[in-house]
């Protein structure tokens, strides 16, 4: 009986493996299974036209007078951690992105996480999405898989396909955390209040321990009725009551030691958060709430796939992402709630976001302009007193992925693909750094021109960095600007160091660099930054108290006013495969000398402005320092699993 059930699961898995489960189901859609696209969206090559230079063009020279101490600044944010931007990973794509099971981890993923860890101290990753609601535990899955997916229950054609997982899912996450400092959010299934299926929390707490940040309760409950997960009378009060039922179930479960780590309500805009606050949610559950959360996408691209809603032409939409108004107006509806969260002593999280629901837009979501947008939006969320935000990652058939693993049947031949918004997360980790004390303010200089937003960041109370955007694409150079930074209540240093985020146009997706380095183009990413590090030193005029920082069109520039500790990244080699032809075994002597962060593999970052010091240069002695493994003897693979 069990065996045949497993076999049927296995065959479902094989069928389902050809299909990408979307992260968002639009209203009125009864199945989450999207038709397979002929060309997977993650590799779509659409290049849009950059918007014209605006008329009037923004002034190309302006002065920013920035106070030296946080005590002289009004409207500064709460302290923001370098982990601000994390990732939200749809459960159904864990196998492709993280690895098959706890014995096989995806090396490019470890590298991509390590880049952020070295800048922020940790990486925050949420595992969940619509697919968490119907997830259920099984004791084993065929062929050693930790997670698998099943087609929708035929008894309930409206439901999201279930994800099935074994306890090894948590060892997989835990083993990732033992190599890179990843902290996890998980979600408890919430489709059935008579059977909460608490194994996710039981195993999560037992196996992840301190690496578990929190447990989401309900994913976009404001869409439950529309998606057929609840009946039409579902409302914020019923959600709040069900939240209470879940707390009761957790409290009654002796395998759940901790139930003060819950996160809600994760409403997506159909209900305002205030509708949930008005039920008394926060005061009633304050002892169980680790954070308050919302989810939101600025727009949607549901029409091409599902034929519903309005068709949004990407070329026309592009301009809406390429100015400061976007981030500001996205945050505005949440300012009341972020203040309420602060008063309640709870972090306020954007639990899932990206450029557009239903997979994003071709030519926008994966473009340099999309990355400038996501970075500005992230900094604006931080300024608006969010404590964190998670960029959503789906499968092959979405345009907005920060990173995409090759489909398993070609994983031996291709490497990974990084979407431009990965850089937004990477850069934001440098904007905030590792001290947990960074406070950010939107400066609104240059007459608050929407094409040239700027922010100042204070660390330990002192001005540390200035962030400068130029959203305009103009190859003539006429839209390049020079920002003059003057420090009020102090003076500029003798020089500042500037890291640039560059590409030729907001439209490009392949030629993107951060401080001279790139992760590479489609299907050639192993997760390591390549190329010579290029940190530009700008001499300042201390007598005149001025630093003139040039910013090309388009670009983002991060100006460091204080000396920074070098950024060092441990990297993981991608030379092993799970297939029998090419399986690398681990040299035990490596095991003996490695603790997962081998000192031999440190890469010099900021502070070493000489490119010769960068041991990770693509043309130089690139680090192939072999597999770095923890003492548990993991095999790190670029896998071929089917
Ligand atoms: C990119 O995606 C769009 C929208 O799905 C599609 O029309 C177009 O053919 C794709 N183009 C390429 C080159 O992949
Ligand atoms: C909830 O999900 C589980 C597992 O997928 C399924 O067995 C069950 O029927 C669902 N319950 C409801 C009420 O939809
Ligand atoms: C992972 O899968 C492989 C088969 O590919 C299997 O041999 C191994 O036992 C699995 N590991 C775990 C921890 O289940
Ligand atoms: C890694 O996974 C294995 C199960 O395959 C487990 O025995 C081991 O404890 C895990 N290691 C860590 C550090 O979590
Ligand atoms: C909706 O479901 C709730 C709880 O199961 C039930 O009490 C209520 O009567 C239902 N409402 C409708 C309109 O079916
Ligand atoms: C903020 O939210 C509270 C709680 O829902 C509500 O009472 C209040 O009217 C809101 N204030 C504003 C300015 O929206
Ligand atoms: C700037 O972005 C906003 C919000 O996305 C949009 O409504 C507005 O039209 C854009 N402005 C211009 C001039 O493109
Ligand atoms: C963020 O919180 C700080 C501290 O409470 C407050 O002064 C500031 O006005 C808030 N920012 C916004 C945009 O609401
Ligand atoms: C991989 O699988 C896809 C989807 O079934 C198929 O279109 C493609 O041809 C396969 N590629 C290889 C190299 O087998
Ligand atoms: C920053 O906060 C994290 C917890 O979120 C903590 O682990 C870390 O040690 C803190 N870093 C510093 C420098 O205090
Ligand atoms: C200034 O920064 C210090 C150190 O991070 C912090 O303790 C203090 O609260 C900040 N003051 C203001 C007004 O934000
Ligand atoms: C890549 O970008 C750099 C800097 O913007 C530029 O000099 C170079 O010509 C671009 N290369 C290609 C192939 O577009």
Automatic annotation (TrEMBL):
Segments passing through the bilayer: none
GO molecular function, one term: hydrolase activity
Keyword Signal assigned: yes
Keywords of the record: Hydrolase, Signal
Hydrolase as UniProt keyword: yes
A Pfam family per the record: Glyco_hydro_79C
Residues of the Beta-glucuronidase C-terminal domain: 454-558
Segment forming the signal sequence: 1-17
Source organism superkingdom: Eukaryota
Entry-linked PANTHER family: BETA-GLUCURONIDASE, BETA-GLUCURONIDASE C-TERMINAL DOMAIN-CONTAINING PROTEIN
The name this protein goes by in its record: Glycoside hydrolase family 79 protein
């Amino acid at each position: 009986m069990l065996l045949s059930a497993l076999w049927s699961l296995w065959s479902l898995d094989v069928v389902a493996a050809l299909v990408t489960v979307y992260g968002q189901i639009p209203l009125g859609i009864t199945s989450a299974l999207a038709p397979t696209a002929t060309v997977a969206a993650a590799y779509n090559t659409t290049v849009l036209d950059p918007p014209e230079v605006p008329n009037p063009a923004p002034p190309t020279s302006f002065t920013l007078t920035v106070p030296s101490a946080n005590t002289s600044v009004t409207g500064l944010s709460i302290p923001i951690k370098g982990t601000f931007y994390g990732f939200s990973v749809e459960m159904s794509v864990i196998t492709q992105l993280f690895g098959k099971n706890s014995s096989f981890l995806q090396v490019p993923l470890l590298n991509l996480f390590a880049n952020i860890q070295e800048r922020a101290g940790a990486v925050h990753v949420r595992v969940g999405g619509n697919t968490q609601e119907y997830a259920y535990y099984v004791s084993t899955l065929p062929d050693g898989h930790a997670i698998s997916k099943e087609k929708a229950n035929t008894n309930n054609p409206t439901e999201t396909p279930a994800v099935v997982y074994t306890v090894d899912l948590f060892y997989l996450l835990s083993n990732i955390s033992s190599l890179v400092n990843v902290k996890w959010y998980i979600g408890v299934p919430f489709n059935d209040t008579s059977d909460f299926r608490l194994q996710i929390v039981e195993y999560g707490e037992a196996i992840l321990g301190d690496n578990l940040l929190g447990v989401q309760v309900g994913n976009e409950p404001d869409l439950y009725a529309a998606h057929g997960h609840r009946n039409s009378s579902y409302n914020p009060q019923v959600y709040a009551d069900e939240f209470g039922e879940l707390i009761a179930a957790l409290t009654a479960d002796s395998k759940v030691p901790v139930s003060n780590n819950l996160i809600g309500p994760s409403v997506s805009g159909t209900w305002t958060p205030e509708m949930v606050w008005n039920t008394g949610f926060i005061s009633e559950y304050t002892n169980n709430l680790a954070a308050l959360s919302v989810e939101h996408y600025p727009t949607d691209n549901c029409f091409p796939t599902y034929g519903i809603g309005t068709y949004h032409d990407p070329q026309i939409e592009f301009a809406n992402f390429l100015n400061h108004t976007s981030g500001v107006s996205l945050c505005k509806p949440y300012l009341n709630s972020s203040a309420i969260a602060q008063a309640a002593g709870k972090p306020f999280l954007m639990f899932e976001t990206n450029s557009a629901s239903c997979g994003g837009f071709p030519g926008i979501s994966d473009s340099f302009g999309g990355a400038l947008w996501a970075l500005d939006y992230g900094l604006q969320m931080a300024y608006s007193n969010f404590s964190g935000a998670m960029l959503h990652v789906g499968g092959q058939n979405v345009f907005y992925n920060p990173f995409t693993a090759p489909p398993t049947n070609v994983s031996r031949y291709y490497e990974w693909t990084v979407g431009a918004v990965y850089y937004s997360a990477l850069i934001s980790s440098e904007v905030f750094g590792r001290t947990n004390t960074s406070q950010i303010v939107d400066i609104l200089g240059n007459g608050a021109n929407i094409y040239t937003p700027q922010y100042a960041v204070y660390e330990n109370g002192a001005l540390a960095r200035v962030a400068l955007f130029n959203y305009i694409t103009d190859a003539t150079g006429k839209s390049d600007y020079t920002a003059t930074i003057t420090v009020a209540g102090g003076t500029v240093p003798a020089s500042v160091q500037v890291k640039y985020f560059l590409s030729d146009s907001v439209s490009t997706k392949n030629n993107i660099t951060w401080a001279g380095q790139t992760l590479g183009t489609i299907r050639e990413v192993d997760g390591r930054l390549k190329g010579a590090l290029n940190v530009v030193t700008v001499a300042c005029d201390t007598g005149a108290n001025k630093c003139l920082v040039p910013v090309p069109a388009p670009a983002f520039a991060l100006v460091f006013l204080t000396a920074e500790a070098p950024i060092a990244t441990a990297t993981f080699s991608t030379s092993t495969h799970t297939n029998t032809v090419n399986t690398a075994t681990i040299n035990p002597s490596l095991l003996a000398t490695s603790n997962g962060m081998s000192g031999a593999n440190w890469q010099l970052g900021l502070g070493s402005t000489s490119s010769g010091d960068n041991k990770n240069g693509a043309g130089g002695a690139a680090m192939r320092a072999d597999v770095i493994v923890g003492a548990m003897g993991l095999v790190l693979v670029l896998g071929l699993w089917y």
